[in-house]
Design a protein that fits this description.
This protein is an alpha+beta fold. It is 54% helix and 20% strand. It contains six helices and four strands, in the order E-E-E-E-H-H-H-H-H-H. Strands 1-2-3-4 form a four-stranded antiparallel beta sheet, with no helix packed on it. Strand 3 and strand 4 form a beta hairpin. Helix 4 (105-118) runs antiparallel to helix 5 and helix 4 (105-118) packs parallel to helix 6 (159-179). The radius of gyration is 26 Å and the shape is elongated.
């Protein structure tokens, strides 16, 4: 939907923005009549939009889902999105950048969290319990991290706080467990 004026909208089924000028197929002009009723004013099978100004750099930013971008491109995309004032998209980009940058620390934290229990040698060492605790902590951490990603992407809380809090709590717990070993 393209908003032309208050109560007047264009509905375009297919838009070809790379044609010069941009062209739309199956275009409807809809206006709001009275209270809440919409009425079809005009309809075109094909219509050119010579007045439409398309920013191709912005289109390229919006083309791919942020979660599939490599970490090397996420920072540059974040800066461009801040430039275009795309706050929601920039929050999503920052959330995935932080997630991809800080997630490799999780392997270290799992080893540090389980290591003190594994350093205790004896016949009655509960090996199954150690494996269960390690797996449960890792699975619960990723569940909490997924929830934090959703909260950060939708700007419920700032992305740095959303991603940083679960990773720092998990890391502090692992470091404390490892520190207790001494």
């Amino acid at each position: 939907m393209v908003l032309l004026d208050i109560g007047i909208q264009l509905r375009i089924k297919k838009l070809y923005p790379y044609k010069n000028p941009p062209e739309g197929h199956f275009v409807d002009l809809i206006s709001k009549e009275g209270g809440s009723f919409f009425k079809l004013k005009e309809s075109w099978e094909s219509k050119t939009f010579s007045h439409m100004d398309i920013d191709y750099k912005l289109m390229e930013l919006m083309a791919f889902p942020v979660m599939y971008l490599p970490i090397s491109e996420l920072h540059s995309h974040y800066l461009l999105q801040k430039e275009f004032r795309l706050e929601a998209r920039a929050a999503s980009t920052l959330t995935w950048f932080l997630t991809k940058a800080l997630t490799p620390l999780n392997c270290l934290f799992v080893i540090m969290g389980v290591a003190p229990m594994c350093m205790n040698f004896g016949r009655k060492t509960p090996v199954f319990l150690i494996y269960c605790l390690g797996l449960f902590s890792l699975i619960s951490f990723y569940t909490i991290l997924d929830a934090a990603i959703v909260l950060g992407e939708h700007l419920v809380i700032p992305p740095l706080l959303a991603i940083g809090t679960p990773i720092s709590f998990f890391g502090l717990g692992s470091i404390y467990s490892f520190w207790k070993l001494k």
